[in-house]
Amino acid sequence: MGFFNTVYKIITTYWKQLLIGVGNTMLIALVSTIVGLLIGILVGIYRTLPPARNGFVRVLQKIGDVLLAIYIEVFRSTPMMVQSMVIYWGYAFMSGGKTLPLLPAALFIVSINTGAYISEIVRGGIISIDKGQFEGAQAIGMTHWQTMTKVVVPQVLRNILPAVGNEFVINIKDTSVLNVIGVVELFYQATVISKFTWATFETYAVVCVLYFVMTFTITLILRRIEKAMEGKAHFDLVEAPSKEAM
Amino acid sequence: MYKVFQITNLKKDFGANQVLKGINLTVNAGEVISVIGSSGSGKSTFLRCLNLLEKPTDGKIVFGDVVQSSAETIVVSNCNVLDAAFDVTKYRSKVGMVFQSFNLFNNMNVLKNCMVGQCKVLGRSKEEAKANAIKYLQLVGMDKYVNARPRHLSGGQKQRVAIARALAMDPQVLLFDEPTSALDPEMVGEVLDVMTTLAKSGRTMIVVTHEMGFARDVSTRVVFMDQGVIAEEGDPQQIFTNPQQERTKQFLSRVL
Ligand SMILES: Nc1ncnc2c1ncn2[C@@H]1O[C@H](COP(=O)(O)OP(=O)(O)OP(=O)(O)O)[C@@H](O)[C@H]1O
Ligand SMILES: [Mg+2]
User: Fold this and answer.
1) Crossing angle for the helix pair A2-47 and A102-127, to the nearest 10 degrees
2) How far, in Å, from the CA of B189 to the mean position of ligand 2?
3) Distance from the Cα of residue B186 to its chain's centroid
4) Dihedral of CA A5/A10/A15/A21: which sign?
């Protein structure tokens, strides 16, 4: 009886704290995945730019390429826990003691971290698109931006959705490392609650279930979206569509 | 009658491999030019150089840009396509291209395929673009399929939509790169029929093809390419019945 009693007590006493933890974790994971996806798409569009005709612009373009490569490699090659410490305390160091507000700092850290990963996912997605799709668009006079945003990226998005969903799920779990800078996400709440209750196992068991419910719900929702993006398996013939057009 | 293309000494290298070795060709408005020749002779490369999908290494392409046209007069401005300041995207919208592999946009239905260029590149309104798209889809007999995605269509249907997509931009000239080579034999006819209709209506067309029947019966001029140069050109009758060059004779004896 002891275990369930304690769990019941934890939930009824600390439901507010747990809810705040769940809310912040979801908020950080959701916003960061979306921002990371935007970063990834923009990086992908930039990196597939055809070389500029103007020599000076071409050099700038090349420098941009190198900077992006550094960004991606640095963030993929270091743990997010270390990144958050370096960014958070780095800012405090540079600004002479002022610290970043926690939630914006968390959103920033997880977003650029996710952006680095998704950039690589998008790059793979762009490579896998048939060259004919680019040429078809170029041949009717579309610019690189139009080609990418109207033709290529929509197809890439459909292909990479499972991988991006995976990043989302990873983010839900990995926001827990932000507790090192004191962000009030679910894991942080767990450490606080367990200090009050001394029921470490029971507290983390509750949190464990909460994490699972979050990630599993997201997984189910993403499956739905994937299905919807596949589009209809059939189409309907249209009789005399010219009238409709008038 | 104005000159759509004046091509002089056009060259293209891929590294050490010189694929085009100096092409000279003038294309008049209303001409239907068939480009024939064996595999690897540089036909596709030539076509792709014309709309700058490949960047020529050397030479000159002068495009006769129609800036104003009415029933009586046509005002043409000749511009050098390879000029550094030349507006490539605008130019491409005036030079339609039909590919062997169709290259329809997989994320759009048939109607959107034929509208997106008009809206985004030419800045036409949705209504205008739709009406124009449907006009050309009717011409190629695909107007019932506006809601279909490319994956729903057969090869011949895809190619007809691709032709409508190119036409919807109201280009001055159409380039075809072996438009029927990826098709099952029974679908070749439906695409050639559409192309014949276009040719008869006075469109300027450059058609790379292995369809000797089309080259002989529909085109106004035949260009035979061999190893990166134009080995022989002339009207279809002359090329097919009385070729002058030894290599033309050899090629024709192999394909006819
Ligand atoms: N991107 C490229 N890089 C290197 N070589 C190329 C490239 N594109 C074409 N080539 C070469 O140029 C030559 C001519 O190719 P092209 O595709 O123009 O021939 P083609 O006449 O169209 O042949 P086919 O009838 O088979 O289509 C070939 O030897 C080919 O290998
Ligand atoms: Mg070819």
Assistant:
1) 60
2) 20
3) 22
4) negative
Q: Do residues A98 and A54 make contact, with C-beta atoms less than 8 angstroms apart? A: no
What's the pLDDT band for B23 if we cut at 50, 70, 90?
A: very high
Q: Is ipTM beyond 0.90? A: yes
Query: Does residue A16 lie within any of the structural domains?
Result: yes
Name the pLDDT band for A241 (thresholds 50, 70, 90).
Answer: low
Residue B84: per-residue pLDDT: 84
The verdict on a CB contact (< 8 Å) between B53 and A155 is: no
**Among B90, B103, B135, beta carbon nearest to A135:** B103
Q: Do B109 and A235 touch (CB under 8 A)?
A: yes
Question: What residue type is assigned to position B196 of the chain?
Answer: T
B43 lines ligand 1 (CB under 6 A): yes
B120-156, pLDDT tens digit by residue? Answer: 999 999 999 999 999 999 999 999 999 999 999 999 9
- Best probe of the B interface among A56, A133, A140, A153, by most B CBs < 10 A, is A140
Q: Is A240 within the bounds of a domain?
A: no
Residue of the CA atom closest to atom 17 of ligand 1: B44
In a domain, A107, yes or no: yes
Query: Could A140 and B166 be called an inter-chain contact, meaning their C-beta atoms sit closer than 8 Å?
Result: yes
Nearest CB among B51, B53, B131 relative to A245 is that of: B131
Residue A120 lies in a domain: yes
> The tokens of B37 are what?
């020749």
CATH code of the domain containing A28: 1.10.3720.10
Which comes out higher in pLDDT, residue A13 or B191? Answer: B191
d(CA A162, ligand 1 centre) in Å: 37
- The Cα A178–Cα A21 span in angstroms is 12
**Bridge partners for B229 per DSSP:** B226
A162 touches A125 (CB < 8 A): no
Does the pLDDT of residue A239 top 80, yes or no?
no
Domain around A17: 3-230
* Ligand nearest the Cα atom of residue B17: 1
> In total, how many domains does chain A have?
1
Q: What's the rounded Cα separation, in Å, for the pair B200 and B30?
A: 9
